[in-house]
Fold these 4 entries.
Entry 1:
Amino acid sequence: MAGGKENARQKMINLMYLVFIAMLALNMSKEVLMTFGEIDREVVKSTKSLKESNNAAIQVIKNSAKNDSLQWYTAYQPISKISEAAKELTEFINKNDNELITPYEVNDVTYQSFKRPILEKENAFGRTIDGAIPEKVGDYEVMDNSGAYDEMLFTGDYVNDENTGYTAAGQEFVRLVNNFRDTAIEEISNSDISRDTTKNKIWNDSKSGLIRLVNQSFNTDVVKVGKADDKIKSWLHFNFEGFPEIASITKLTLMEEDVENVIQTMISTINEVILGENLTSLRAIPMNVNVFYENSKLEGTVALGKYDETFVASKVKIKNGNAPMKEYRAIDVMENGEVVLEKLNLNVGSAGAKQLTGEIIFVRTENGVDVEKSIPIDHEYFVNPPLANVSNKDMNIVYEDIENILNITMPGVSNDNIQIVSPPTIKPGKNGEFIMTNQKKGRTGKVSIVVKDKLTNFTSPPVVFDVVAVPDPFASFSQKGDKFSANQILTGKIGGTFNNERLDNSLQLRVSEFKVRIGLRNLGVVRNTNGAFNDRLKSEIKKARRGTQITISDIVFSSSKIDKGRKSLFSQNQVVLTVR
């Protein structure tokens, strides 16, 4: 639009373009405002439910502190003081007789609350909210002005802690946020919620996570907004100054939710610590102790209902199948609250169903006397015989008279203990592989591979493979096309393929010899050139005229993997090359 003299029509187009951009910006702003409003509406609902749940849980802990002071009194103290600080903050945000707020009118009603109510409009389009059609809905699109909260919170820019630029309402709001954070951190840091040393250790291990949650949600440090050290804003200016009214309301709603989340996490952690070691409700749960192969080691874990690295018993008793009951020190066989079965060094034995029984024993002090509490173990698992797995690395079948590379394994049996009972044509190779050589089709055209575990003398059922003869390959020429220049023919080579990639890769054929005819002249046999033309033939090919046919026939192939006693392979076709 810049540069050059514009006529009236062009000016009109430019003006329309600017109006269009402005309309797009206006619509985008409305979408953002609408999003803030929808977030606020949903979070208000969830926060209300969370607050009711927290209040009920706190009342239960309070009653427990009265009825069972030995166990619950010290646990109630930190949550009581933190909830009081939370109540001060949320009441300041929501109460409608806040003396620090100048009265204002919304929806024809006078308010005096820190958190301004949502503007409403008639539900002209019959919008459904929470399964109902209300008469009025939030008019979020018009709540785009920052003036209400700018006037409520600020008298100017932030300079330092002595000159904050806050109104009395702003100062009190920040004080209450800081008070909630500092109270929560202090109560968590300095509390011991139980007289039981084990429970207190678990509680102390949980403190860092709780304190981190509080600091992340209620950090009110100044915010650096430029490269220079003095380019800073207060937390309140950074989060509330200049923002649309609906955005500030939503931030206050999210803060209330953060308050309730801190309290809920505190309640959950305290309950877990105090009630977590309820031995009567725990069960021993064997995990990954289901199926084994003969004579392998017993593996898996026996968990105590939950993961807890501090949850260590006094001793463990295990009876595996028909073996006698064995006793272990818990410290030797438990990790992360679980019995690690590998540490028992037990063999699962022969095939069949087995019963894993025993008990996990705890010593607890009751009325000054050590008492044993036990959790029973009762689990059935199965032991399978180590059936052999046999596969041919190169092919899906076994070929007669050539080297076949086989992978042979038995679950639970090391390679060193695998013995081939039959056929005798299989010998150990490299890297745990086995090589079958000089295998014949025999009368049935099949070979049965029988594998044995040398350690236990267990013999696997036979694995049957078909034995087939290696087919004769097809001859090919290294250059592509129907007609060739003399130079292409001179530099080309005769080769062979089975049209089977795995068989080609396995045998890697070489050309032993072939016959050549140029036109009607037979030029004899070429040997030991691996498919290339010798100098005598190259001289004759150079003399050949356009259209002359060069016929390669009686091609013989060999391979280092074909047994020495086997005859060579012969081509199923001949190669005809036409000179152009």
Entry 2:
Amino acid sequence: MEMEKELLISDDEYETRCAVLEEGVLNEIYIERKAAAQTLGNLYKGRVENVLPGMQVAFVDIGLDRHAFLHISDLKYESVDEDEDENGKQNGNRKSDTNTAVLDLKAKNSKQTRGGRGFPFLISDLISKKQELLVQVGKEPIGTKGARVTSNITLPGRYVVYMPNSSNIGVSRRIESATERDRLRNMAKAVKADVEGGFIIRTAAEGLNETEFTAEIRYLIDQWKRTCERSKRKSAPSLVSKDLSFTNRIVRDMLTKDVKRLLIDSEAGYQETVDYVSSVMPDLESRVSLYKENRTLFDTYGVERALKDALSEKIWLKCGGHIIIQQTEAMVSIDVNTGRFVGKSDPDNTILSANLEAVEEVVRQIQLRDLGGIIVVDFIDMEEASHRKRVFKMLQEALRKDRARTNILHFSDLGLVEMTRQRTRPSLSTLLMEECPYCDGHGTVLSIETVVIQLLRAIKMAHRQTRQSELRVIANDYVISHIKSQMANKLRELKKSLKLDLILEPDADLHLEDYRIFVGKGEELFLD
């Protein structure tokens, strides 16, 4: 059963946001801030600044604030002995014609084991300092890390991704019919007979005729030729070509036949989209509409509410259970809990149905929050192996629709499912949130009891240091009222034992964990 899919694009002077709804539920969100320079997909002529063979990486100056990061796996190198394309043509020696880092390594086969970890070479065998390379940004800069770049260039079209430095033909895994996959692959082979490079055939190509298919490939090849010419004229480091605008990128990659409609709330954005759609996919132009209501587009469709929920740690499930999502530097952990869900009298089936419901929500949240790297899911413990199998199969199925590449491992001995997910841009929380300036990155503050105990100890120490009988204490009003109501006895004992005249003053603006102690009406004390 095909789900009803809608795209909503909201555009104002601050940012452009695109929401993907399935059956009215927010599944994905893409945000581009107007102030930030977007680099994903751009091509740069870069200069190698540093090569670290021990880590198999190089740092490349592409003209941004931080040097880009190039791993050996993202360097295009083809050994003539190893790689032949479908027609038996060898691809190892194209360096001169395309002006990119395609490296002919015929002379280096004696070093088969140098690189370790599956790489027959060290990165320093392939590139050297000051060398100029044409590279493409595969990952936006995130946090303190520079952009990750690749010399495996890809030029995405609507139906085909053209890979000038490859010789493979791939077909989107979402095209399920074997005959259709073969038909498209054969069409690509026919075009490829007189063309250098490889292709990935996209989902949107399903049912496409040969004329449209060939026309797009010709267009992409011309685009590549123009890019190479421009690259030759430019000096490193510099931008060689930008990807499409954010809105057109969304339309190119997402407006497929299964999208019922695309709503845009800005006149300019609507016009830009209609121009693009009418030239590239005229049959879908009728699905593009301008949103003109008074209430904002994202409020009308519940997107603002769903975005708010996507930033909280706890998400409730319909059955009464909940999942907790926590992001750390190393990984993302997702914990499934029964919560209020007690179910029928059969505990095994109760747990199974809670886990099955959790699978859908877990996958939705992974996509919506754009979580990447290592993800560990802790489902509620299931005794029966058949139940674990069902949950795992459903998780695999749900992840097949995910646009990012995922690699999922089976249940571990501890009942955890581990997976990795491709990260190409900052997650939603990285984009929309920042570290709490109060809690020092813990994400929590001290409990009221802890703060009160610390304060009472500080009063004792202040008396010991000063031997003054009159002290004035300023603290958060919540802390002061807790002392007066819950700790009144302790306070009385403290004042009596130290023969202390203590004045407590509430200050709502003071942070919950902070307090200030003064000697009478005089100077403030700074305790060690």
Entry 3:
Amino acid sequence: MAENQSPAADPEAVPRRLSNLVVIWRFTARYKGHIAGALLALLIAAAATLAIPYSFRLIIDKGFAATGGDIGRWFQYLLLAVVVMAIATAFRFYFVSWLGERVVADVREAVQRNLLRLAPSFFEENRPSEIASRLTADTTIIEQVVGTTISVALRNIVMGTGGIIYLFALAPKLTGMLLVGIPVVILPIVFLGRRVRNISRHSQDRVAEVGAMVDEVLGAMKIVQAFGQEEREADRFRGAVERVFETARRRITLRAVMTAAVIGLMFGAITMVMWQGAIDVQSGLISGGTIAAFVLTGGLVAGAFGALTEVYGDLLRGAGAAGRLAELLAEEPEIRAPADPRPLPAPARGALEFRDVTFRYPTRREVSALLEFSLAVRPGETLAVVGPSGAGKSTLFQLAQRFYDPEAGAILLDGVALRDADPAEVRARIAVVPQETIIFAASARDNLRYGRWDAGDEALWRAAEAANAAEFLRALPQGLDTYMGEGGARLSGGQRQRLAIARAILRDAPLLLLDEATSALDAESERLVQSSLERLMADRTTIVIAHRLATVRAADRIIVLDQGRIVEEGNHDSLSSQGGLYARLARLQFEGLAA
């Protein structure tokens, strides 16, 4: 694990303590009216349930003993208790189910909002698929806890407590005997509950592994099928699913043993007490109605305590899920605006400067991506950056957008250090076309509007025309409203890249970052898009990362990076004549094209 890795990356690091549920209470407490309604309905339902044994006592002692046929009156009391219990239970179910769904929605929104604040380094150290599992599997557990488990726990606590009080009122001696068995029941809860907690933790982690595996394989389905690895991936998934099942089987077995032990001991104690009660009825110490009410109430009390053993395991699972979600909620962004951000000057010029910058990626601390790197990009200049893989080219873009802060040195945009500015204001002055095009599972319109969300259709079509994307966009079934599919699956690679270029054109930012923006285009589209890009680049600062050197010949300046340093600088002709790294890269490419 990385030195500063969040516990969110390691589920084992999150303790399963019931105190973790305080996090969920903070969200639940926002809805005091629904909580009050649920508690009131719960108390009424519990009281009505306990009134049923009392009604049976009245029926037996007074109804059967009556000579005037007044037994119906006592059955009416019983029917009233049943009706009240049913209505109150329905209200309780509605309120707690509403709270469960509402709290889960709020937790998901809060976690997602906090995740959007975090720097890319967090997602290097914590797998996005694992985080997605927290937003699905763990929040589902929270919904169960808030919408069911806590309600069941409170109901059974009220029922158990009220039932014991009523039992004392009915027959103190018998109740005392019944309570002797409670310590015997508690011991299995404590002993077996710890084991259930540990197994529940492993069960959640195994489910998270399955979710991460599904996400990974489905996202790489073309590679899986291209290399004929379907059977191996199916076997790997089967192994993961079997591990989930085996862990769940152990948890279920242990909970079944715990439930059997508790209920067996409790009802065994009740049987012994009833035996003594029957003797007392024969002796005339208590009435038949009293013993009937005692039996019914004792059954309710035993059932309540038995249910609490199951609830305890669910609460532990909920505590584990709450703890892992709390880690995500508590995560603070490494990149944030200072308390008093310095505004960028207006009008924007697009000047970018690196001063003695040294930087290492958090997950690759042993290698310097940039080492004492200095570079000044003038306003309106077109700068091409070339070099072998791993030379630090993409790192320039990452730092310019302040996705990371350098370990040493400073980066300035229009004369203001990025650390002193608001990152949102910095990024508002930058348009970027990445090499790996990102297309969202949304409409073409929304994908374009990512460049400027308030843009109208006229501006969208102008940007599409400039990027040579209008023709294929008009040919889509619903035009700009056509759904693009997961990752832009309905588009070709060249179409996706042209859509990304149109998005950058719509941004109309003073600083343009192009990471081999024409690499996925055919020759004709590349020619058209290149001319559009030249018009776009004319009035703004542009930095081009080029893997194909034919795209950088027209740049005002070319820098050659190697191992995080500038090793050559000039234009195409001067660098070609020097016989250095640029000349070697150019020779390899052009000879390859000639061949």
Entry 4:
Amino acid sequence: MKMRGTALALWLLLLLAAEYVLLVPLNLTSVPFWGMFLVFGTLLLMIPAIPGGRGAGDIPGGKAGTEKVIGFGQIRKSGRGSGKGVPYRSARWISTAFLFGVGGMLLLGLALLFCSPVFHAGNYASAIGEIETTTFEEARPQVDSVSDIALIDTATASRIGSRKLGSLEDVVSQFVDGEYTQITYKGRVKKTAAVDYDGLFKYMNNRGTGTPGYLIVDPIAGTAELVRTQNGIRYTPGAYFSQDISRHLRKQYPTLLFGETYFEIDEDGNPWWITQIRRHRLFLLNPENIGVILTDAITGQSQRYALPEVPEWVDTVFDGDYVCEKFDNYGMLSGGFWNSVFGKKGCRISTKCEFEDEDGESYSVSDFGYVADEKDIWIYTGVTSATSADHSDIGMLMVNGRTGRVRYMTLAGADESSAMAAADGELQQYGYLASFPSIINVDGAPAYIMVMTDNNRIVKNYAMVNMQNYSQVVTGDTQNEVFRKYRRLVSGTELSGRDGAQEQVISDRKVRSAVFGSDPDGHYLELTFEDGTSEKFYMEN
């Protein structure tokens, strides 16, 4: 009996440790919950099989007697009984535990199968919600300048932030920058990340005061700033024990299904963690976001919000991976599951970018970019045919990161990976690599614009590629320079100088007047056409 009591205590200790480490939600729609239930249920049923428990008289059909355990599977018994002792009981409980574990896993597997797209393709296809059809001109208004477009990607922003931390004596070697989130802050696009602990020992040394604050990276200027909070940030992903943000949230909300957690700041500069709340549309599968939990990164106080109630400053209720997954389900499964496997009629997916791992093997993943209006971040990605391998887009998808509003526009041209490859080839002698591009409207036509970085993620150049003809590529040292070059390239306009004289050739437009001038961007020729419109053409030095 003592051995079984010890085993039961050990079982309970393992259960509590597993729950503490794995943070499994106490929710019947959670697959990890059922997996943990089956594992620990099987172990619990095996405890009675340990020798040293009830006598033969406790066995159905037996009579009271005495027994002495000599070894596992061997007994010495006195008095009358059923003739069945410990070996019988052990085998019975082991068999019961085995049937419970195996049977439970089979039932769980069947439940997952019945919740899969094989039987519920329509449910998966509709998870993205209503899709609003729009035009490129409505979704992306024409731009006359690119100096305020955020082009620096997350990987480059992380390098900029890391270099900023490394320049501060009281921070370096103690803290690191966390994951970056793209936000709108005071009407401008920023990337922000919490300063986090650099390992267990650094946490133990600083847990009383927390981390010094958070980083803000300007993805336009390429600069970083460390904002020190009055009280340190105590709840982070890199903290341990009760200050680990995931463990802190699970303790507050033991039954909720969580999605991803992102760091943001509100309009007053206060740091927050934004955690997605999810539910499954099909018992165990097909999760959808239904709200968020806002957690004060300093105090740990949390507040739950449904989707319509989310504050306007929050930007990451829906993230890019979620958007691409839901659209891929919509594009592939709208015609049914078997059509997505065999015929693939009308199937569409978000565009994929190819990368190489450390072993040189290539793999492809969904990639996406961000565009911003005055108060919201929009996630965008190209859309391509699932049956095509020509690296071309047939449309563009834009999703509001706060409200989940989905906009789709038909737009044919090269996909993002082709544009990046074209830009790489333009500067291949330097080994620069293009970031994921932003799409802009230049004189009514779509164009990609991106930064070019070296191996150290330092911005070296800018590039623009014509989406509908990606052989048209230009590069420049600044955003304004590459924009001017691109407009001259695609409009059929050329500038040339000889002995101070300027010759202007304009295709299909009659010029009413021409004026030379200069501004901070350089010298220009401003032409006014017969239709009343005017345009500046900058001249290279």
